[in-house]
Queue: 3 jobs
Job 1
Amino acid sequence: MSMLDRAQCEALDASDPLAAARDRFHLPEGVIYLDGNSLGALPKATARRIDDVIRGQWGDDLITGWNKHGWVDLPRALGAKIAKLIGADADEVVVCDSTSLNVFKLLSAALALRPDRRIILSDNGNFPTDLYMAQGLAQLLGRDHRLEIVAPDAVIDRIGEDVAVVMLTEVDYRTGRRHDMAAINARAKAAGVHTLWDLAHSAGALPVDLNGSGADFAVGCGYKYLNGGPGAPAFLFVARRWQDATQQPLFGWFGHAAPFAFETAYQPKSGIDRFLVGTPPVLGMAALACGLETFDGIDLNLVRQKSLALGDLMIRLVAQECPDFDLALASPVGAERGSQVSYAHPSGYAVMQALIARGVIGDFRAPNLIRFGFTPLYVRYRDIWDAVAALKAVLATAEWQNPALNRRAAVT
Amino acid sequence: MSMLDRAQCEALDASDPLAAARDRFHLPEGVIYLDGNSLGALPKATARRIDDVIRGQWGDDLITGWNKHGWVDLPRALGAKIAKLIGADADEVVVCDSTSLNVFKLLSAALALRPDRRIILSDNGNFPTDLYMAQGLAQLLGRDHRLEIVAPDAVIDRIGEDVAVVMLTEVDYRTGRRHDMAAINARAKAAGVHTLWDLAHSAGALPVDLNGSGADFAVGCGYKYLNGGPGAPAFLFVARRWQDATQQPLFGWFGHAAPFAFETAYQPKSGIDRFLVGTPPVLGMAALACGLETFDGIDLNLVRQKSLALGDLMIRLVAQECPDFDLALASPVGAERGSQVSYAHPSGYAVMQALIARGVIGDFRAPNLIRFGFTPLYVRYRDIWDAVAALKAVLATAEWQNPALNRRAAVT
């Protein structure tokens, strides 16, 4: 394979059909941001929109904003926008709470659909909070429910008629390995097992086809590829066939059939609204709306193509520029990969600190992974060149051994 | 009793020790806002602070903001500020999630402390979502837990050795009736019952003494008297003696002993942090911080004095100005009242719409209550005069019978 240089990367940028989308974001000077899989960059529209919500809506219209400005409708309105990104219908998605809490709700709902079974199947590549929520629910239920954790590639064969739910994160937060959602859904359906997908590292990064692949339940995160801001509200999906056939146990007034009748007894609303709990966080919702608008007019197939191309470029450039260092590729090659590339390095934490000090922001995941995420709306091919050049410089000079580089791990 | 006039109300404003606090808020021209018990007014500091968080922190520092700007510490930092308002220690309060979800967490924790008992005692003045959360939890547990709802004045005598938890909202959202927290806590303690208080209509409106009165658990709302903005995050309190003796079932990574070690098994952190679940909503948290700062240097005893004085003034002026209309006082007189006054009127909904059309914003609660909340930091005595004058005008001209006045009920 011929050697690549920076000019070739610039040429890729020049012919990139998504290149103009970068202008939708504020990106600080001198920074190469490869951590949009942890916290998406700031859309340019956000600051002004939030200022308007604060001063023009809350400040001037006070309580009347709930109706006048549609605050009460935000969970559904934003859900409808996300639905388009994940292959769902508009009335199958709502924005609410955190990913963790949404896992709890939907896992409860799924277990209730299979009262005869006790096993929640997951894998050791799932994000820990999903596993924790399952453990908490199983313990609370006290009816011998059990979380069974297998290796990612053992999941599909383990799906059987003793399993109630298979709960997986589609794209592994550490390695970027992607599950075959359609195959798992098909196998699950054949065994009478319901599926709960965490789309934290999928939604906005690649086309997801929940309904086309027969998924039952899904959750996802607002602050990664959806660019909703730190701690943005999360979302959940319930296939229409299950919405009225089950319910979740966090009976809150926003899930009530008549929340403003202030009745004493809970009566769930029909449809997806019964998966809501408390009052919608308006500021966070408004910021997430701006994040979702960065996808307006964007073809997710182009996003996926570019995401894979950026990752392939990184893998090729690291092989070309950094062959002599102690880096081991930890991500799959090709379409089995989500939108990130990770490398194992014995001193991964310090290496990443040195990269950040040089303005190349990725992140570290225990025990030894450095992780680079690709957000095709704002990451350029030349950024990959520059990031690998920085990585080479860090490793060649061993500047990562500088003990002053120390910092707590960031939030995924 | 002598007749009052507006000049006397203005004189009360002139000698009000809290008068200067009004300048901490943005209040629209021509509006008298008596709904701070539903959504607090906008602090002047908020818009600029949030703009700085968005542009200066998220925009420029991206993922590094979690540590650089202390985002991860917000639940504790804001909890410590709220602790001062509710008679708790700094390490007994965290800000997180919604009031509803926090009820679920603490009710679960409280029930786990009394596995021998099955009754959750509450009253029919409790806010419905609290009752719903209890119903959802009882149903999920499937172990014959039962929510028993009695009249507010029957609660104390019903507390007995068959009750696991008594769960009450201190101040009734409809009538403003206030429970005697100290008496109920004492009775509960004698019967081995744990207490869970909802401070939605208390925190910031009157001094609360959780530890002095022996409370076990409490929750509260960020968007009412704490001025955190629409859907602001809520808070929860766990007395230190119970923090490590129990846990809540929503096992999220922010409650884990080592959230960034990404371990597979949940291990709760020691202390109040185990009551956290998902990633903190940074924008909502930052806005709530501004809301809490409106209490800096404020003596809550003065807040309480003024709150009662505003309510007494309203009751006196309504009696003086509106004796001939179909208004029935639905709130207690004197210290048994929180920070609001409510009246029953057969056409309460339409009356409130007509008032709002005149710029006097209170709200309506089914079946027939019009509700006026007093936020002593920004409501003036003259506002009460003007509100009652508007009420008189509405009722005297029957302008509330205008069928064009129609609007969905607002969020409490």
Note: Chain B touches chain A through 91 residues (CB under 8 Å).
Job 2
Amino acid sequence: KTHYKIAVLPGDGIGKEVIPEGLRVVKAAAQRFGIALELVEFDWASCDYYAQTGSMMPDNWKELLLPMDAIYFGAVGWPAIVADHISLWGSLLKFRREFDQYINLRPAQTFAGVRSPLAGRTAGDIDMLIVRENTEGEYSSVGGIMYEGTENEVVMQQSIFSRRGTERVMKFAFELAKTRARKHVTVATKSNGISISMPWWDARASEVASAYPDISWDKQHIDILCARFVLSPERFDVVVASNLFGDILSDLGPACTGTIGLAPSANLNPERRFPSLFEPVHGSAPDIYGKNIANPVAAIWSGAMMLDFLTNSKGAGHEAHDAILAAIKAVLISGPHTPDLGGKASTTDVGKAIAERL
Amino acid sequence: KTHYKIAVLPGDGIGKEVIPEGLRVVKAAAQRFGIALELVEFDWASCDYYAQTGSMMPDNWKELLLPMDAIYFGAVGWPAIVADHISLWGSLLKFRREFDQYINLRPAQTFAGVRSPLAGRTAGDIDMLIVRENTEGEYSSVGGIMYEGTENEVVMQQSIFSRRGTERVMKFAFELAKTRARKHVTVATKSNGISISMPWWDARASEVASAYPDISWDKQHIDILCARFVLSPERFDVVVASNLFGDILSDLGPACTGTIGLAPSANLNPERRFPSLFEPVHGSAPDIYGKNIANPVAAIWSGAMMLDFLTNSKGAGHEAHDAILAAIKAVLISGPHTPDLGGKASTTDVGKAIAERL
Ligand SMILES: CC(C)[C@H](C(=O)O)[C@@H](O)C(=O)O
Ligand SMILES: CC(C)[C@H](C(=O)O)[C@@H](O)C(=O)O
């Protein structure tokens, strides 16, 4: 394949400011490495669209997105217009599920120029990849309320893990570890407290691990695992976790590196039956929207992951990814810097500076 | 009441080393402040007992413990003899549930003499109390496996929150905030992802909060909340959380202060219908057991919380608590220090040094 179709969904708030900069860099890299991109921008999957139409997306959203090779997503959510659960479950979480994007891949790395809140940690000390199950588990939406409105009221919600859903995320993590220097997988669990689903999750980990004799692995309970992210983050390489635990770890990991505002993510359907989605981890940030001061690095880095994925982590897309990351690293050191990193530059300034290095 | 009966359950591993030091200090404080204690030690709720009898506790454990005012617990677990889920669910988690110890109270504080892993944080910067729901929620043990052994296998586990169980933990947190300088409650949630039980949890928080107009409060999703524990821990005062989220936060909070090995906990039945249980957060630590090098501070601090609770956070027990904490703080600065804090002192040395200051 030499030509890729990308749906661009800037969404809400600073999504609309950072995605243009991401596109600037993605286009520059695509040109340099000879990747032909067809970009199709949509204004839906946004709260503005909801305000006009009463739904987050048009009825034929699936039809429109299915022919795409990837979705480049900004951020969604504008609580003043639409309640979070409506905007999120009406767009982002719908994509993850209906496009079977069962891997949420999120790196956490220390960089020169970005201060880690942990004492003494500098560039290169922390370098982990968090592999989050992205479609099932604790986010099942199955459950309900009993005795509603009485003093006996009880709410129940299921965590649901399928063998297929669990095995595939474990396999993805172990395959990923093969490509890494340290070749280690940490499995997040809580089987001493969550006594039915988590021991079962552990059993799936053991089964899959036994097929990878060259990959070392261990499992750690989520409580002590979070503590160790703070106490000894350099020990982690690939970390695989359920939907909820992965959600927690992929905010905590970047927080420990000081890069929470810079963190990218890839919502992958590795088999490419459906388009995968690439988005910054940060949200729409109503408090800073409109000032052109949002840091575009998370969106740009997400764009780099997209190019890498399009060409199977090989060839032109892979080179483009590495070139973008090198440009990001250079600009994190030299500036320009947006206010979150102590600078005075605008979103546009940073996007241009990164694009110029390509 | 002027006479209190305490069941002492050292349990396994370093529980058997730290509890004697805790008792040394508790006895010294009780004597100084005129509190009459009757201590009854049991060797069960331990894996040794399991190895001899095939169960973690005698059949009449409830009868034996019910007359007690408190349980002073060491640690349980010795995976080489008994699987964790058997030892834990056969003792500690049984107490929490059957004695309706619905509050798990866990402080996290920075101290002089203990290095925080966070850059620039020193004594007094972090001072939070984590209020963990301790009997229901994600630890329900309700669920099961379907299509077992086939490729369609699915495991499900319920999270179950009752109105009574949720309201009482919220009330406890808001009442506690009244006694604090900053009077702020943070409610941990994940209502944007866990779409049935957590919005319901948020509604209970709002209801209870409305009865406390003088207490400020906010709710934060667990992912960003964990990140903020690392990025701006000084902003937290009282944090209330479900069983699972409280478990995570009460390892992460102490980790951020550098005191994870020093962290105490109180498993409370505030109405005193059943005995409450006081235990260090750390486990039985098979790797260091038998060397007399475990840090006894967590056990000693838990003993202080016990004395405070016995007299309703007033009078002699409250004074004893504050005196023990002052002695702990002094010894953390001057030493002796166990190896985990960079010293060469024994468990006994530290226990004696703290007791001598009383
Ligand atoms: C051992 C385990 C079941 C327990 C829990 O998760 O409650 C422990 O982590 C704790 O925090 O007391
Ligand atoms: C917004 C929210 C539902 C979402 C999640 O929990 O998955 C976000 O935190 C994320 O990590 O992408």
Note: Residues A 88, 247; B 192-193, 223 surround 3-isopropylmalic acid (ligand 2) (CB under 6 Å).
Job 3
Amino acid sequence: MTAPLSEEKVFKDPVHKYIYVQDQTIWDLINTKEFQRLRRIRQLGTCFLTFHGAEHSRFSHSLGVYEITRKILSQFERNQFEDWPKEERLLCLCAALLHDVGHGPFSHSIEKTFGTHHEEWSCRIVLGDTEVNRVLREVSPEFPAKVAGVIAKTYSREIVVSLISSQLDADRMDYLLRDAYFTGVNYGTFDLERILRVMRPYRGHIVVKESGMHAVEDYLMSRYQMYWQVYFHPVTRSAEAVLHKVFERAKQLFEEGYRFGFMIHPLEKLFRRELTTQDYFLLDEAFMQTVLMQWTFEDDPILADLSSRFLQRHLFKYVTLDRLDVQQLEKLRAAMNELGWDPSFYMEIDFPSDLSYDVYRPGDHDEKLPILLLDSKDSLTEISRKSEIVRSISGFHMGKYHLYYPQELPINQLEPGIRKIFQIE
Amino acid sequence: MTAPLSEEKVFKDPVHKYIYVQDQTIWDLINTKEFQRLRRIRQLGTCFLTFHGAEHSRFSHSLGVYEITRKILSQFERNQFEDWPKEERLLCLCAALLHDVGHGPFSHSIEKTFGTHHEEWSCRIVLGDTEVNRVLREVSPEFPAKVAGVIAKTYSREIVVSLISSQLDADRMDYLLRDAYFTGVNYGTFDLERILRVMRPYRGHIVVKESGMHAVEDYLMSRYQMYWQVYFHPVTRSAEAVLHKVFERAKQLFEEGYRFGFMIHPLEKLFRRELTTQDYFLLDEAFMQTVLMQWTFEDDPILADLSSRFLQRHLFKYVTLDRLDVQQLEKLRAAMNELGWDPSFYMEIDFPSDLSYDVYRPGDHDEKLPILLLDSKDSLTEISRKSEIVRSISGFHMGKYHLYYPQELPINQLEPGIRKIFQIE
Amino acid sequence: MTAPLSEEKVFKDPVHKYIYVQDQTIWDLINTKEFQRLRRIRQLGTCFLTFHGAEHSRFSHSLGVYEITRKILSQFERNQFEDWPKEERLLCLCAALLHDVGHGPFSHSIEKTFGTHHEEWSCRIVLGDTEVNRVLREVSPEFPAKVAGVIAKTYSREIVVSLISSQLDADRMDYLLRDAYFTGVNYGTFDLERILRVMRPYRGHIVVKESGMHAVEDYLMSRYQMYWQVYFHPVTRSAEAVLHKVFERAKQLFEEGYRFGFMIHPLEKLFRRELTTQDYFLLDEAFMQTVLMQWTFEDDPILADLSSRFLQRHLFKYVTLDRLDVQQLEKLRAAMNELGWDPSFYMEIDFPSDLSYDVYRPGDHDEKLPILLLDSKDSLTEISRKSEIVRSISGFHMGKYHLYYPQELPINQLEPGIRKIFQIE
Amino acid sequence: MTAPLSEEKVFKDPVHKYIYVQDQTIWDLINTKEFQRLRRIRQLGTCFLTFHGAEHSRFSHSLGVYEITRKILSQFERNQFEDWPKEERLLCLCAALLHDVGHGPFSHSIEKTFGTHHEEWSCRIVLGDTEVNRVLREVSPEFPAKVAGVIAKTYSREIVVSLISSQLDADRMDYLLRDAYFTGVNYGTFDLERILRVMRPYRGHIVVKESGMHAVEDYLMSRYQMYWQVYFHPVTRSAEAVLHKVFERAKQLFEEGYRFGFMIHPLEKLFRRELTTQDYFLLDEAFMQTVLMQWTFEDDPILADLSSRFLQRHLFKYVTLDRLDVQQLEKLRAAMNELGWDPSFYMEIDFPSDLSYDVYRPGDHDEKLPILLLDSKDSLTEISRKSEIVRSISGFHMGKYHLYYPQELPINQLEPGIRKIFQIE
């Protein structure tokens, strides 16, 4: 069971002004070491190398997701909507708070190389031998499993899952506002209060009153802009590429039996994919940056160079490709090899739309639930059928191929056919 | 010599909207590894444990100080003020950008224990064998020494020093605005644009037109509020105390010849006070947090416990003391020793006003230059002589003693005379 | 009796984001013609001639005062404070909404000349034969009298009166924030949400938890700054002076039997002080500006000139007087008369502190209730006894004499003794 | 000739923080009575009846358009773009400031009924016997004609015209930001500073660097949202409809020889379409509201009722029509006539897209110049050819028919076929 706090606690928050904690369980979860660890994981990974304000952590984002969820539920309760299952309140709040608790340092790059998955880790932390698990079990023995179910999107009640994970969920609403605030761009701004006011529980779904359609359009446009202006910014992608190459190189060296000058627990277990939740706890961005710093002294020149590039922000340059000419790229790889730049570690082709971030696309192979409008006659319509704006940005696979390469590559020495890739006449 | 950039560069900044770089030298300085290192040093040290938004780095603050200086100089040039020595422009900009380049991780605690001093390190980095020094020398051979002179406040022209370091300098103006933005409080907000407009070079000083007096009052009130509401917040001070105790314990152990389970370059040199600028470069907050994390596994129980407290945010509790009763505190120390809590590491008395932060106090033993008002008859008056508000906050040694101690201390078992300290009847 | 609205209504508001209406009575009051009339009365009178953004009306301010009151009461109810008389909720909301309903156009000038008083008119509108009265009577026959009692500060329960009228009331909190927003200055900004959170009903008073002292200091500093930077701005005072002279001249002419070229109902009744509530309804700023515009064609040159000055913003110039030298001013008056500038209409001495606006001064002959801090031991202390800052701004009669006069006055032709007033050597 | 001011003047502005005046001519223009008159004309006409914050005047908007133009030109000059004709600076600034000087009160309604046209009046004021004309002539005898040419879009240099009047002009940029600020919605917010930075003069056009495409998309989306959420809000349209009917009725009565109880100069000349610039000066919103107030006492019940509806905000209700069924509407008109509600004055069909406001539609019969992107190879492309988002909102004639009618109309008494219009079963 959970108890209300004798006195409401508040956190000062730049995005929501204040975050209100009213339940002992929530307060205890925030104070677990696994949740406090999120203070050492940046919300936007390498993005701070493009937008220097983007140094905020997953800790503040997680509190924000919790707060938006709390506001939605409080609205549902104030209006006494019958379609809202009141008994799920605490479950929603806990899942909102914990949905990102499994995020590791620089998740994208690490996950690509080592096959970890943050959602899976969130569930392991919720279910394993952790402080988080102990707090949740105090609510009831089966409570941790329910929370993990919501995070894994397998929980039986869609309405609970959709608050945390859908095309219009508390997670996205917080990160758009928060990332906009900390980067300083104003693309991510939309009228949160209005959207909260037009949300309704309705026959097992969260829907939106039709009168709020323009507000949702505005939210979706914010998302669109944030993706193209911030999340997919080529400099951020370049940093991501360099970091990915560092890990690929380290993994290769490890598998080849290379003796690292610097090795620290639990790095080896990460390489061996044998991390326990106790080990995982140690993996934060401070750890990873320290490893990178020490690797700048490694004997392996590629590992040392790439680590140094990331820390000193000597990132790869990039060029936009009109199309993907496989043969031409093969030739480039060969030429790079000849010039002493191993293309496996000094070249990356990136196509920003196949990323974990996604723009709104109903009907796609995307597990995210669509946005439904509820009209005055109580019928539901998927929003892109009513809004030309939404139609124009959905199903969008726009995005261009980018080629990343080191600034020092002597492009002028390449043969003209290859040089054309770099759009230099 | 320096050259203008062929095309102005901009950084998106949440506080100033954009930061404009117009000189090759400035651009090159930003790209040195010593300056990039500031991305890994938080601007507000342990304050993020109180205000979770306060995760911004000294990198963004340093850019901000540069930008405010640039705006001030641009105003001086546009108005063609005769008392402004135009030839000092680049010197001012470089000193503004680099004034904090010597800051280490969690400066306050580290400096107290190991006797490093950030200003001194800034000068060493400017003058030593560093990328920063190489960029500065390209301007002229004696340029690094001039920059170090401004940072050390020994440069011959007071007007140059006062832009970077006075009661109304670019440093403070940026940090008040920036810290307010990232913590989310609005105490630090004042009308920067107006203050910039009323600043004037005048006979070797930077002065303020009398018509701007209320704007300066507002700025000083912001400072006052930020000190008492944010910088001296008891939870931040508690985190500082825990951290300080970690380092004190480690130093003691080191001096006693304890064999650390985890030791990493250049930690030993920090203990021995033998850091070179190359070593210093490795010391960032990622490094220090990793050390703390590894120390949670040390055999020494005090070091392990204190490190863990800091990382898990199990900070000390505190109580406000009406006065400092030395005898009573001696008794408390004895009692703690008996209970197994070594008071050297589990108790701290803090008096927030004797800190490196200071409130406005002309006439005090403070090296900061006072604020002078210029009236329509061209005479100068120190502001507190004209403003009752300023008078009321200057010379202020307010502040109360706080006693910090572990939550687990069994206060009830103490004898009543000592228990009174904790204001429990 | 009153009923809740079947669906909450909202107004979009730039200051509070949204204003929420939940009661039929409030909704009906907003839709009365007397309340709608407030759309045609500016909140800040002549201030828009200094700060062009200050064009907002008493309508939006009145909604804001209502909204802040609603938020305070909602907090009281959520926390179930025993000292709060729940049955007074609707009374508070209605009084908050209606406290300014009796404001006329350019109140200060008109009230000075014609002896009307806006608080008295608010009561007459609440009690008279009006739409407002009809809506209030639907609650209960004695309800209008109660509302008038709160507005007139004669209502028996101090706690109700103090919400609307004290040193920390909903009225001031709204106008500081709103006037700051519309003028564009940021002096008026303070943390409303925090202040609302530390307010408590306590033994018949509204008090503030001691932990909120700094937030209240910040609010009081905002007030101080707004008074000296915005409300007492000499250009606003100049416009006020010109307007006052217009009315003085018109009144004199009327009393002398002058035949106005333009006379329109109910202007004559204003002159005769015989306005009924029906007449009063017609008196708005559109009316008054139209009268001024038509008076620019009057035969009386002084009336025509002054009216034109106000509309074309050819205001009086001003000079600050170090002290009030009555003899010298007498000489100036004589000299002006000789030069053909009747000093009764072309000269004004203004001392900004004896105005209807006031800064915080406990113990003064001010009916406003002081701010009391509630400490952890449940004892109350007046704030200036704990806060040095508040002490420094209370009891403040600062302010300087200003002399207003027409730009065209040939100062150089005055004899040197008089010319000294104008600080010209 | 014009001279720079000896000291820059500033206006505090909530949108641009400060507005800077550097030329004597601009300062003198602002102080003319014709420009000051804009203080008495609301920027958004009847919109304040929907969004109560929207009480700002054309005066502040005009200053804003001037300020944005000043910023654009200052950027052009700083970058020394060769394609910018520097000698046109003052012309641009004057035209920016004066482009709306001919706006009358509640322009839309008045213009529809009386055939006045604000652009034509702006030119008449610039060219006629006015203070504005006298100030302009001081620059050079032919200067007024040039300014009028820019306003009328007949000036020979397209680049000058397009700053003030194109799809991305200073006028729109200011009103979107300003109207968003004063209404309190955040749809109108976009990154002005970024857009200004990517604008370029190029071969006689103002173009946008391709790298700024997303910023322009964001601006166009703001426009789209503002049109549908604010400018076309049905309540604003309803107020517009009522006002239009007032004037239609008054005109009809006048033409029928009705003797008005209240008639005031220059109302009759407005009816007769014989206004001179001197007369026009008197026509402001104060004047018009006073006329409406007096007309509430007219003997003609329709004129009295409609005037009262507008002032008391008893507006028409509305219903959205799926399509325009002319026959059905004829029947409704007949039924209304029978019930005593003259449909000429109590019914209005409105289709929001055929208004003076327009959304972006290149290729349409719209005189506004398109937005051109300049790529790195110096070729120009119209933006909708590169941006799917822009394509989706251009050529948009979306919008629905609305039927406006009095709330008191007894719909239930209508026969079922007509009743269906009101979507009541």
Note: DSSP finds 21 helices and nine strands in chain C.
